[in-house]
Amino acid sequence: MNNSNIKKISASMPIANINSANSNLKNLRVLLQQSEDINVDIHKLISRLRNMPVPAKTNMYFQRSLVQNRKILSVIFADCADLRLREFNLAGRRALLIYIDGLTDTKMLERTILAKALCSQEQVISEKKIAKIIEQILTPSAYTIAIKIAAAVQQIMMGNALIVVDGFRQTVVVDSAEYVKRGIEESKSENIVRGAHDGFNETLRDNIVLIRRRTKDTNLKVKIVDIGQRSQTSVAVVYVDNLAQSDLVEEVLRKLAAINIDRLVLSYNIQEYITPRPWPLFPTIQGTERPDVVVAGLYEGRVAIIMDNTPWALIVPYTYNTAMQSVDDYAMQVPVASAVRMIRHFAVLVTVYLPALYISIVSFNPGMLPTALAIYIAELRARAPFPTAVEAFIMVVILEVFQEAIVRLPNRMVIAASVVGGLVIGTTVAQAGLVNPLLVVVISGTAIASYAMTSYNFAMGLRLARFIIIIIASVLGLYGVILGTLVLLVYMCSLESFGQSFMGGFLQVDTLADWRDSLVRLSIKNNPLRPKIYGAQDETRIGGYRDGKQND
Amino acid sequence: MVSRTTDSISVLQLGVVVLAATLGGQLIITSRNLIKSGGEAAWISVIAGGIVYGLVAVMMIKIGRHFPNDTFVEYMPKIWGKFAGGLIILWFYLLFIAQAAVILQGFGKFIKYFMFDKTPQIVIPATMVLACAYCALHKINIIVKVLSILAVLTTPVLGVWLLALQNFNAEMLLPIIPFNWPKFAQGLQSAWNVFAGYEIIMVVLPLVSWKSPGLSPETGVVWTFAILTVFFAVVIAIIIGVLGAEQAALFTAPAVTVIKGVEVPGTFAERLENLLMIFWIPLVFDTIVVFMYTLAKVVQIKFSLQDHRPALVMQIPIIFFLTELNNHLPNYEIASKYIMYAGIVFSLIVIPLSLLMVLWKQRSLAGDGYEQ
Amino acid sequence: MNNKNLFWFNTVTLVLICSLFITGCWDQKELQDRAFIMTVGIDVADEGLGATGSPPYEVSVQVLKLAAGASEKQSAQEAKTYVLSGRGESIFEIIRQLYSNSSKALWFEHLQAIIISRKAIEKKGLKPVLDFFIRDSETRWKIKLFTTQNKVRQFLEYQPPTGEAGGIFLDELIDQYTRNPEIAGRLLDLGYINLLLDTKKEVFMPQISMQKKKIQITGADVYRGNTYLGHYDEYSIKGQKFIIGGVESAIIAVPYPPGTDTIMALEIFKIVSKLEPHVNEDEIYFTLDIFIRGNVGEKQITREVIDLDDSKQIIAFEEAINNEIKTNIMYGLNQSRRIGADFLQFSDKLRAHYPETWARLKEKWSNIYPTIPLYVRVESHVRHRGEHL
């Protein structure tokens, strides 16, 4: 190679002036910054213009011209890659089919819209009304006419297809929503032995169907409201018209209308919005995945709230007594069911009180123990390094951590964790003498008891209450336990939602009639009344209601 | 709905409130005085007391019926004039606040003595007052809910006294004849202590919705008194039958001592008297709750406040101060004695006279078209 | 506004309660940090006089040794308890002084038995000795009381062959009264003796003695106030227990046929007795009806001599039992008359049923009592012959 051919570029260039370069760079940066700002501003402007989704209040109507309509829609749906637009000829006019990919049954659209329209190419109808065209040529099973853009856009977002025809202000919304969803499966959280095994899924329509299929009662009303400025989630309020008190239904609707949030993801979001207490220890609204529970609740005069996209239906009001009922109770021999009910009440006491009682008896009033047991415990604890309260507290915290870990772990790891937790911690902690074996028994008994609850949320509340009682017990002993119980009881009585305190009619003198389905359960034949506490308009279940003579 | 949050209670619930106010600290604290003054026939004094004070309670309702929406704070001035009426209200207020203080003091003493040797005694009434205040802050229908649950849960526990029947010797109750009238009269006097608290009827009555068919407040209260009387008489009879009247008077709390003698083999908790003390706590709790609520209500109505809660919060330190004032044993005994006299005069003189006044006024003014 | 009020109240309450936690745990004392006192022995010192002129108390307590952990097996020979003792004028004071010998606080809630020497009762009186235990809320009502003529400390140092703590041994020993009518036990715990003391009646306490290094219950001692009245032997206790009840099961062995020396025994499982006072003008007498049910418990005679298949034999056997019980009761009654103790509590019956008569006789009761006749009627029924004739 000949080196002489090579010329340095720098030779042809003026000597670089570092200062000017710097100032240029600075200018460039400023420009970039400004352009970015402008970009952001423009985007803000665009998004404000676009106002996605268009608020229902805006009165924007479609134009006659298809081109203009298409332009409007493409602005609204800008950057929505899953939007599908398909132009075709319909009765001699240009028409546009708009839908969202994946939300819509495209096969149905092909069959009832496109195929029909294309097969009738030669047919030219000079109708003034778009409905006539649809009726004569197309064959969708259900459609509606929309003239407001906002309404049409919302329908598209729900999975329906929109047909815009040139020359018409009216557009046609074809019911064609079909999307991926979970089938009707058994409820994951509420397992029962005997009884229906279908549970709610994430689709509001299916869920309402599950309820409707259980009763052919036209008094069962469904009101649907959309909540969330952005998400516009459908929420159904279900109630039995001539059972639920009308002020209860109104209160539910009013509280739902007052929800001011941009999106709803969980039905618990609704629950937190409509519960009056910001820090409730116990759930004041029942959550269930089971349609039979909902139907049973509706016929007690209660109101169900079902949200789209979640299998958890809410039922208001909710009381302790209801929390103690399980579907299985009603599919068991009456004496067995009553015994199980009592065991469950007992389990509540054990969950909350067992460790606290242990602490207060062992370290405050051991005189209450029989002498032999007192000596036994004293010998077990002879070399215990911690006071009972600390010991118990450590064990309860470990238990809670362990439970939380098990819940969060992938299924495959659970067995390993159980072995570590159960064998390693349970056995070796006792062997090492850090805690005494009796305490391990107490704590595991407590844990087992808390699993006997029908409501997960209620059990969690009890677990927190247990901590409070343990703390009080370690300061004031048995006196503290009782005092804590009294305060807790007052709290539970005052925890009101939808006009009903959480303790409800439990052991109340003026709702003694409810004893038939409270601490015990009587046969359904012997329990002719609905729970008095929910105040259903028609109190009798058996013999009260006839076709001809409804309580209006 | 049955229990929509309204500020009213049913007749049955009135019974529960009266039960809560009456069945509280009094029995354990005052059983000794009762047996000391009543002797072997103390239980007859209790029955007589139940009848007398039950009648007074019915009189209170009868007066209340003439002033359907008024508490006694409103109608006493109407009956007796502003000054005398005001005096009666003050009397009532002082009586109850002192009674609450005495119960709390006695309660603290016994709990400390039997269960918590080293805990400073002040802690027990202090925590109790706070817990009671928390409950009394709520509306009456929530308070009644709490009382009802407590009544159903704790009253059966009082059946432990029946266990003492294993040591019962009926001959200890003898001789009844010849009947010892002076002792009976003394016992009747002490019986006020056992029933003290039912006077809250005069404040709670306007809150009762009388619409519920069948059960009038009179019947409700009579039933409550019947239950209470039977219960108290049985317990007192058991105490005398087990310990003997003479010996029972030598114990500070014969009602507790009598449980000490009970032996139930194979039970988990051995010292039943401790168990009794534990279940006594809710009983004292509901008594104090009713007292505090009543007192706050009196202040609220007297000074036409919107709400009873400010009054309630204000009186926490007062009750607490009075409780501590009773700390010294002689003070405590003098206080209980004078409260008893004040209560007896209030029940047996002021109330019947008020009823007579009402009836007399009604009759004399009926011609003038006087409408109450 | 209302909710706000409530909120502030809650906050203040919470702060107050939290402040309790900071100061709290006054009564918290771990079980293993308490020294279980199983038995208390009260005696008076042999020599020296206290400030009051009487000899000082000598109080011993039997303290439970806690086996160190479940893993270490305690050998059977090793003692379960140890004894601390001290001297002084006040029992409470002595017990507090014993704290200087113990690393743990002495704790009386599981106290099982109190043993008091006869000497201590004579010098100090029973009521003063027991006062501390009655006044204190820690002690139970059901603590068993014993008296002894020996020195008390040896009973506390005794290690029962069963390996349990001495106090528990004593407690359970006396509970055998339901099966062995020779043990005085029913209604003789701390609480009841205190009730009897309150009415200034005679009390009797089971007596224990140490024979051949074994603890044995030997009848009962009777006291009135500070004075020792006398001693009931086992046979008279048996007689009295037929009247006051508390026997769940007892064996009565009688020579049968009467007059011979062969023995037949009745196993009693039910005794109903009724003691009634009668006042007729100036004459006072008591009647006692006893009804007994039982099975044939033992027969040391061959079937050839006595055939139980013959119901006449049964009736004759019942007659022999009746006589034996009558004799037994009269023996007991005579013994208490000799001592001057109204053990059957005739006075209580008279006070309850004939208050006027009682008021008249109250003053001279101790003179009248030994002369009051008692008419006994016994009826026994054999329910079962046993598995084999």
Reading side by side through the largest sheet of chain A, how are the strands ordered? 1-2-4-5-3
CATH superfamily of chain B: Amino acid/polyamine transporter I
Low-pLDDT stretches of chain B are 1-5
Strand content of chain B: under 5%
Compute the average pLDDT of chain A.
86
Instruction: Based on Cα principal axes, name the global outline of chain B.
Output: globular
Notes on the protein architecture:
The complex is a heterotrimer of chains A (552), B (372) and C (389). Chain A has helices spanning 9-12, 18-50, 66-76, 106-119, 130-137, 149-157, 204-212, 246-257, 267-274, 291-298, 320-323, 334-363, 371-380, 388-408, 411-431, 437-451, 456-494, and strands at 83-90, 93-100, 143-146, 161-165, 171-174, 220-227, 233-240, 286-288, 303-307, 313-316, 496-497, 500-501. Chain A is of the alpha+beta class and 552 residues long. In chain A, the strands form 3 sheets. In chain A, strands 1-2-4-5-3 form a 5-stranded antiparallel sheet, with helices on both faces. A 5-stranded antiparallel sheet of chain A has the order 6-7-9-10-8, with helices on both faces. In chain A, a hairpin with a 2-residue loop joins β1 and β2 (93-100). Chain B has one domain (11-357): Up-down Bundle (Amino acid/polyamine transporter I), CATH 1.20.1740.10. Chain B has helices spanning 11-22, 25-38, 42-66, 72-80, 82-114, 123-136, 140-154, 160-163, 181-195, 201-204, 217-243, 245-248, 254-260, 272-302, 309-325, 329-366. Chain C folds into 2 domains: 31-68 and 75-232; 244-384, GMP Synthetase, Chain A, domain 3. In chain C, the strands form 3 sheets. In chain C, strands 1, 2, 3, 4, 5 and 6 form a 6-stranded mixed sheet that branches. A 4-stranded mixed sheet of chain C has the order 10-11-12-13. In chain C, β11 and β12 (283-299) form a beta hairpin. The longest helix of chain C has 29 residues, at 311-339. The relative contact order of chain C is 0.09. The chains are: A alpha+beta (552), B mainly alpha (372), C alpha/beta (389).
